[in-house]
Amino acid sequence: MSFKNFKCVPKMIFGRGSFVDLDKVLGEERNSEDDFVVFLVDDVHQDKPLAARVPVKGHDLLIYVNVDEEPSTKQVDALTEQVQAFNGKLPVSIVGLGGGSTLDLAKAVSLMLTNPGGSAMYQGWDLIKHPAIHHIGIPTISGTGAEASRTAVLCGPVRKLGLNSDHTVFDQIIMDSELIAGVERDQWFYTGMDCFIHCVESLQGTFLNEFAKAFAEKSMDLCRQVYIDDHAEKDDKLMMASYMGGMSIAYSQVGACHAISYGLGYVLGYHHGIGNCIAFDVLEDFYPQGVAEFRTMVEKHNITIPKGICKDLPDETIAKMVKVAKSMGPLWENVYGPSWEEKVTDEMLTALYRRM
Question: CA-CA distance, 43 to 65, in Å (whole number)?
């Protein structure tokens, strides 16, 4: 019997105001005058106070990335080509500054600079052959767990699926809770619910073990303090909940909600957080206690979950979403065990989508 040997983020800085240490961290990677760093920054921060604090040197490359749509293999390949065209040598570090989508782009570009071909070739599990460029993740929204995970989730030509590998994991993360203050309310909720749902799926999955359980239980407790108790230190708590939620699925797996949400994201373009909320709201048969608690949080924060988005869609559109959801084998195995294919039918998935 062999056991999973997974990689954690080896270096992390946590604390209010810790973003100031980014320049010092990058200084350890810059060894010569012509070494350069690539900064991928969510364009929501362009012309905002945070942008002026990014420690860009004269020969670095700063790219403001747009994540209005889900990150795609096409976007990753274009960014990789932009970096390659900027300088004849490789950067010493890629810095991702933003939410989960921006962090996933940073992870993916750092991989594609050292692995041949297009990024769609590597959608799947452990297909990456060569180590990535040194890469740093700095979340400005918390919940996805992208700062902790071994995946960079991308919409590709066939489906939405991550570049899942040990090489994907960040070399360094900086968790400064000051950076998530002031996130727009709906976005704060949807992204935080991604974390809560990670924990529900992990704790009720067939892959559950004490490692995953320890992280998921604490992460869920922190989510409750943020979204039910409205704790005074909710930004710090949500940032740690996100990290621990990401760690909880490192030694387990997500489940039905994420599988179904991938179909919503790939076919209809819903962002991951809101897609999870739409899907989770119809999964009371899978996760009765979790869905009940989720609905309490929705009501407390006066959040409107879109409804009726699928009931009148053409059958062929639903079929595309069903195909994407069914392709998530490891997620369904976490729900049902090895015999999942007997239970995850087109009819079951179609009925769930039609309720959304």
Answer: 5
Rounded CA gap, 269 and 329, in Å? 22
Tokens at residue 342, please? 């007997």
Nearest to 272 by CA among 150, 109, 180, 154: 154
CA angle 99, 261, 269 (to 5 degrees): 70
SS3 content of the chain, % helix, strand, coil (to 5): 50, 10, 40
pTM score, two decimals?
0.95
Sign (positive/negative) of CA torsion 178, 184, 185, 191?
negative
Task: Return the SS3 of 147.
Answer: coil
Backbone angles phi, psi at 72, to 5 degrees: -130, 160
d(CA 208, CA 250): 11
d(CA 126, CA 303): 38
110 neighbors 132 (Cβ within 8 angstroms): yes
pLDDT tens digits, 276-317: 999 999 999 999 999 999 999 999 999 999 999 999 999 999
Q: How many degrees, rounded to 5, is the angle at CA 65 between CA 58 and CA 151?
A: 110
